[in-house]
Amino acid sequence: MSFANPEVAETVVKRRIGESDIDYVTYCYMCRDNFSARGKRALHILDLIWAPDDEDPVARKGLGFSVRQENRAKLKTQLLREIRGEKVADEEEAVELYMDQKVAILMEKRMILVEDLQKVISHAESTGKKILDVSSGHFIAHYKPVSATYWAEYSPHDSGFIIYNAHSHRMEVIEEAAK
Question: What is the pTM of this model?
């Protein structure tokens, strides 16, 4: 629901949270994350079995879109290696990204993964296809891995890059040679 109609989803989550003051147990991890993100103490039913003893799973905040995707990919790789005995290509070294909470929330809302921006910056830095905004000193770059184009406003920092803004869209960007 949160992807198809975010406004309705927000209304439903707020209504469900308001139904009781007690902690919630969910069977849907997205529901647990949605409740937790809005301050409702909630846990997933599997937390009753597998949560570490030194952790309060009810107080844990949701992982967010990027971390959930990354965890799924890691689990898939692990299962392919350990259960099916398949050889899986090692993941290439990802660039380190730094961002403040405001940018992280914006990315979550726009459903942009950290991995998407890592690809943008890796592409821009390896090809030189980036624009310098002289007023801010930030670089602006885009990359289209499949059907969506991702944009990042960033600058180098220590061993990684600071993200200032991120966008995505599904239009085609056509580059023409300067005349």
Answer: 0.59
- The 3-state secondary structure of the chain reads CCCCCHHHHHHHHHHHHCCCCCCEEECCHHHHHHHHHCCCCEEECCHHHHCCCCCCCCCCCCCCHHHHHHHHHHHHHHHHHHCCCCCCCCCCCCCEEECCHHHHHHHHHCCCCHHHHHHHHHHHHHHCCCEEECCCCEEEEEECCCCCEEEEEEEEECCEEEEEEEEEECCCCCCCCCC
CA distances from residue 129 to 50, 60, 85, 103, 107 in whole angstroms, order as listed: 46, 40, 39, 23, 22
* Contact predicate 155/161, CB 8 Å: yes
Each residue's pLDDT, cut to its tens digit, for the chain (179 residues) gives 777 788 898 999 999 999 999 999 999 888 888 898 888 999 889 888 887 777 777 777 777 776 777 777 778 888 888 888 887 765 556 789 999 999 998 998 888 989 899 999 999 999 999 999 999 999 999 998 877 899 999 999 999 999 999 999 876 656 666 55
